[in-house]
Amino acid sequence: MDEQFREHLYTIDEAGRRKWVYASCIKGRFYYLRAAVAYVLMAVYLGLPWIKINGRPGALFDIGNRKFFFLGFEFWATDLFVLTLLFGLAAFGMFFFTALFGRVWCGWACPETVFLEFLFRPLERLVEGSAAQRERRDRSGWSLEKFVRKCVKHALCAAISLFFALTFVAYFWGAEKTFEILQQSPGANHGAWLLLAAILALMAFQFGWFREQFCTVLCPYARFQSVLMDSDSLIVGYDLVRGEQRGKLRRRKDSSGDCIDCGLCLRVCPTGIDIRNGLQLECLACAQCIDACNSVMKTIGRPLGLIRYDTGNGLLGREMRVLRPRILFYGVLLLAYVFSLSVLLYRRPDTEFQISRAKESELFSVLPDGRTTNLFRLHISNKGTKTRSYRLVLENNDVGIECIVPGMPVAVSAGAMATVPVFISFEHFVMSGGKRAVSLTLYDQEGFAGTQQIMLLGPAVEK
Ligand code: SF4
Ligand code: SF4
């Protein structure tokens, strides 16, 4: 096969100009399935930052406060283990699913595909008509009708992009702060409004003009998927054995394959490629060409599936292997990550605390009455959804050590941190070699108790 097609992008002509893709829409089994998935995903992507789950944001990347909320869970920057496991889970999940199902993410779940194929393109068809009508109009000169249709399309695109931009910033600012900023004048918070305007412009540019070029030119996942996939990964492929020799219907011979060279699979492709050339970087596995070709096969009375979901080996009539070393390797790692993360999340306490020596004070000081004092700081993080009151108690105190926490019990609001001083005073005879280890336990009204050991320091006095 001539591999020349791999040397250039279908959407760029020889002079380097963009060739606009006028993708037709054929509604078959996969289109309806993808549409159902897409509308559920749209609700998730656009709804998560605006809703609350367990009293917390559905999704929020609160960079300023170094917190991350997802599906009712709250992660802090101090949850290093959980965050590392989450990143590992995302990475190995992607490796595993790509090795098994190829680019199923690109064709079915990526926000770019979901919004472009099931929101912007349907709107475009509604306003500007079919692919053929759009192409004809674009090639013709300007008229009032063309001007009005373009204005309506871009106005709708801008309105939707505005909602996208607001949702995008809500992922980082939170719903409340986003509403708050919307009520301010741009002059009062010009930084936030500028950012919002920049994101709006980016969204309108992406969905109104840049479109499939993001997948074919920019997306890094598309670039390294080739190393994750092998000839047993699921792809959208053309059955070369069955399809060739392709030929027009009216010129068919007994030796002709099933492909009647109608070109419908090309006309529906959102990246403009010819899947009959084999697996290509630009293929999003969106299955539009499957629906298109199946509709042709139905019309000419041939079996469906000339273009189908299959593996590279399956398309060549070879045996397929689902369980192969890379699948087992990624699968075992994925399970290990899921198990560890579940255990960590299940056992993760709502309260974390730390007692540390106050850096700004002396190691110890001797009071006029002869007692020695040490100053510590108690740092409490309440990761729960309710305000809690905490008490700090010195354990096994049979030698008259005094522990004072001003304002105890210490109330800490949900999702907040508090730091309070802890004064500990004692007679010098409780020391041994100028130090003594003691245990402090933190209690709350809900039954939380955690103990930490600290070292008291004082003058090394001979007994
Ligand atoms: S739609 Fe099917 S029959 Fe038509 S050109 Fe594509 S592969 Fe051939
Ligand atoms: S070749 Fe088929 S599956 Fe691949 S992007 Fe084009 S229409 Fe979608």
In short:
Helix content is 43%, strand content 19%.
Task: Provide tags for this entry.
binds iron/sulfur cluster, 4-stranded antiparallel β-sheet, 5-stranded antiparallel β-sheet, alpha+beta, 463 residues, Immunoglobulin-like
Please give a structural write-up:
There is one protein chain. This protein has 463 residues and is an alpha+beta fold. The protein has helices at 29-47, 80-101, 104-109, 111-128, 131-139, 144-173, 175-183, 190-210, 213-218, 220-228, 240-243, 264-268, 288-300, 312-315, 325-347, and strands at 52-53, 56-57, 59-62, 67-70, 73-76, 234-238, 307-311, 351-357, 365-366, 372-382, 388-394, 402-404, 410-412, 417-426, 435-444, 449-457. It folds into two domains: 1-140 and 212-348, no CATH class; 351-457, Immunoglobulins (Immunoglobulin-like, Sandwich), CATH 2.60.40. Helices cover 43% and strands 19% of the residues. The strands form five sheets. Strands 8, 9, 10, 12 and 14 form a five-stranded antiparallel beta sheet that branches. A hairpin with a 4-residue loop joins strand 15 and strand 16. One iron/sulfur cluster is lined by residues 238, 243, 259-265, 276, 292-293, 296, 306-307. The site of one iron/sulfur cluster has 14 residues, from helix 13.
